[in-house]
């Protein structure tokens, strides 16, 4: 069996790890979506590949040094803010397998509670 896995959402159609990319993956009926999970300075869970904001947003700095409120002011190329893990789950749950790359072992339990 071959699975169609969308890396960072349907990143060929929308900015990687954006809500738009996750909605597109659902529309394309992708089997699984892979994405990375980081935590903010105040412990909130967000979706982004890099820990640094520069490559994929209009902000500079590290996710881990920003509160969620500060991070929500950073926008991806399509104008969307950096998504929370909950927002990604709300779009994808029930439509595909979620393959999470958790970037900090200290947040594993928090992630597991959220995805159950």
Descriptive account of the structure:
The mean pLDDT is 95. α1 (19-27) packs parallel to α3 (85-92). Strands 1, 2, 3 and 4 form a four-stranded mixed β-sheet that branches. The chain has one domain (5-115): TIM Barrel. The chain is globular. With 116 residues, it is an alpha/beta fold. It has helices at 19-27, 68-71, 85-92, 108-115, and strands at residues 5-7, 32-39, 45-47, 97-102. It contains four helices and four strands.
Helices, strands, pairings?
Blueprint: E1 5-7, H1 19-27, E2 32-39, E3 45-47, H2 68-71, H3 85-92, E4 97-102, H4 108-115
Parallel strand pairs: 1-2, 2-4
Antiparallel strand pairs: 2-3
Helix pairs in contact: 1-3
Tell me what the CATH architecture is: Alpha-Beta Barrel
Helix content: 25-40%
* C-alpha end-to-end distance: 26 Å
Give me the number of helical elements. Answer: 4
Q: What do we call the CATH homologous superfamily?
A: Phosphatidylinositol (PI) phosphodiesterase
Structural class: alpha/beta
Task: Estimate nothing, just give the exact number of structural domains.
Answer: 1
Q: What best-fitting shape do the alpha-carbon axes yield?
A: globular
| Major β-sheet annotation | 4 strands, mixed
Question: Strand fraction band?
Answer: 15-25%
The third-level CATH topology is TIM Barrel
Cα gyration radius (Å): 13 Å
Can you identify the CATH class? Alpha Beta
